[in-house]
Amino acid sequence: MTIKSENRGESRKGLFICVDGLDGIGKGEVERAILSYEQRNGKSVFDSVAFQKANRKGLPELADFWNPPSVYYDTITTAEPTYSGIGHTVRFEMITRNRRNYSASSQIQAYGLDRLVQMKRVVIPALENGLNVIQSRCCAASLTYQHIVAIDEGRNPESIRKLILEQEGNIYQLNNAPDLLIIPTVKDAGQLTERLKVRSKIAKDDKAIFEEVQFQTRLSDLYTSDWLREIFESHGTVIKYIDASVSEEETRNLGRQAYIDFTESLRVSF
């Protein structure tokens, strides 16, 4: 059963769910828990990230995941930045530890353009055809990560926030904002130290410039700030903070329950 949010108009039939927060905090656990719940309820899931990694064409188009009667899914999973085009450049060039040092402004522009393309090519077509979209990160990441990069460059926080909100991709996403934004949090960002150490030794060693405990500690306050919450709530997004200082299993449970509670609240409203 597809549930349409009252805030999104008749053309938007699916739900747009985003998970954002600090590196190593458990976003992936929350996303997998939600997707597992969808699958247990008989929903078929299209993984656009795996598609991008496997196909040279990059981002999927509507016909790749919705072309009845031969191709149709109930849910699609996406991620920001993408793994193709400018998103690939962001991931493996602009935010990778190298000596080229891309400015906050260039990062903001690149993220915004990547966001705009994926929203128009993948997210909105999916939502308009009744698919739920489960996405890792959204423009909340630019409002926190690039915010700090800009401060470190000596920029005024208010001016950099204004620059972020003026980007076409961010305007477009906020005008088509997530129905639900789940933000895992920890009281002490130092709790992420061991997680980041383990991750750097295993598969996720992408040498990202942000994966340092001191940087993540500064991010923590931004993700729980009143101004960030107000930006999203003013665009109709429900924000749910969950405690990620617990075990991975409990983090999954909390994320799944946040999703269930939200969808149940929509059923009641209708």
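The above is record 1. Record 2 follows with the same two-line structure.
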Amino acid sequence: MTDPLTRYPRPPFPAQPQSFPGQTPRMEPQPDHGEESYRGAGKLTGKAALVTGGDSGIGRAVAIAYAREGADVAIAYLPEEQADAEAVGGWIERAGRRALLLPGDIKDPAWAREIVERTVQAFGRLDVLVNNAAFQQPNQGLDGIDDALFEQHFRTNVFGPFYATKAALAHLKPGASVIFTSSVNSKHPIPTLLAYSATKGALSNMVLSLAQLLAEKGIRVNGVLPGPIWTPFIPAGMSQEAVKTFGSQVPFDRPGQPAELASAYVMLASDESSYTSGALLTVAGAMPVL
């Protein structure tokens, strides 16, 4: 039995400035994506999945877990994240599954359609779409939020998932699953993450609407609301003072690791969750989210 309070590192953490989107190898301590810890049980055998933002953080953990559960996995990511993406591809292949690497920008609707088509061409099907790619940059005041920056948040975090989900609809069969990475910020918005919090609120509402809209097709739609998770987003998208104490705001007094999110995404994608749609699943170290 493992004590969740002491399983992983706790703050304070060292300052470690990075530019967005951040690189996993430069993080201290190194995040756990389940590379050595996740054990599959065949819950997704024969399925094909597309995970956006699958090169690092939560997306990386999901891709590794899906492969070990028996799925072929395509990951979409920004071109500058090629090294991280190749590492994930290696873990997928070591699990005995096929990996497809798709560099590009989810803000481009044509590319969002292309990654869906290329996944179907490579694997012959698409059963699970995980809309996980996101952008985050903190602000101090309203005047400090550049118009283009505000728009970039929505184009990445809301428009991109819309484009990809719309494109995937032609290939998703009854029993398929669409999962969105939202955030606890959708219900507890942070003033210094005004744009990011607004996009996550939009995503949570999109989950609830799409679950109803696609119910007649037998397609399930759910969302995961992570709390503070130790990903490259943190040193690349927060102040260094915030990085030092990151995770101390929740009752577990530490950030979650990407590997600790993987089981939620596996559960929502598996056939055992056939009656689960329209759920917003919080994974946040005992943080109350209502």
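DSSP finds eight helices and seven strands in the chain.
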